[in-house]
Each structure stands twice: as C-alpha cells, then as structure tokens.
C-alpha cells in the first residue's frame, strides 16, 4: 500500500509539473500544421489500474480544466473543430484531451475507436464532487485497444531472459491470433489489436 501511495504522489507531481510547463496549453501553430493536438495525462504509466482517491480527482480536474481552456481558444478560430475528453477505464492514466480541425475532424469523429457493443452509461456519480461537471458532457462508450505487431510475435526464445516469460507470451499470442478481434495490415505486416477496457468520449452537451 505504501508503494502505491508513493507512486500516486509521483504521478500527481508529474501532472502538476506538466501543467506548470504549459504542456496542457493548446498549441495553435501545431494544430494548424498537423490538424490535431492532444494532451495526455501520462503515457508512460498507462498500464496502471485501480486509480482512485486524490490521483483520480487530479486527473479528472486536469481533463476538465484543459477541455474548457481549449474550447475558449478554439471558439475564436471561427471554424469547425473536434474537441473531446477521452476518459479511459481502467487505464485512466492514458486519458487525454484531443482536438482537431479540417480533414482530421472526420477521422476523430468516426475512425479513432471501435464502437463498444456494451449498452451502458458512464456512472458520473462515482466521481464525487466532480460529478456535476461531468454531467455537462455527453459520453459515448468505445473500446480501448492495445496492439501487438507481427514482428513481436515472432521474437525468438533467445531474446528472452526468462524462458517462462517466453512461453507466457506465446500462449497470449496464440489466443490473440485465433480470436482475430481486430487485425489490420500495414507495411506488409499484420497488427493485432485486443481490448484492454473502455474509453469514454466526452463532449460538452
């Protein structure tokens, strides 16, 4: 439990530092050049599950603050734009705010995620005092996917330091290939996608 607390405090410091360093500020020049811009809470800790307490509060507050700040800036452009909170569950640390303009709007609206077949609504009441703010948004449920490239599946046993890990991965890869949840081919290589949870797409009503 102590290790978990130290980990959470470190993430909170990282998030606060990213805000101070203006990482969460909308870069209009980048947006016009690349047609999109995003602020991700913390990509390196995206696998951490069970986020709650002060850390969850900080994450939600940061997403909301960033969303409304960006909305004010985007409204000044006088053009169509995409703006949404991507709230991951359980990989909450992957959550982000994303915006796009021009041709990228259609991509983020229609192609960035697979639709979830689970018929449920985001329980905003689980977020305590922040529930009121979250209820201002319409939440659309999608599938949070992770991926494995074909080259990773074909790694030889010799590249593993622990043989047990090799056999564990091989069992996972075999199941992944058999299920064929979602597969694409890029640069003559197959990429296998598999679900890690949900991602809620939130837009202001």
TrEMBL record:
It comes from the Bacteria. This is Uncharacterized protein. It comes from Flavobacterium tibetense.
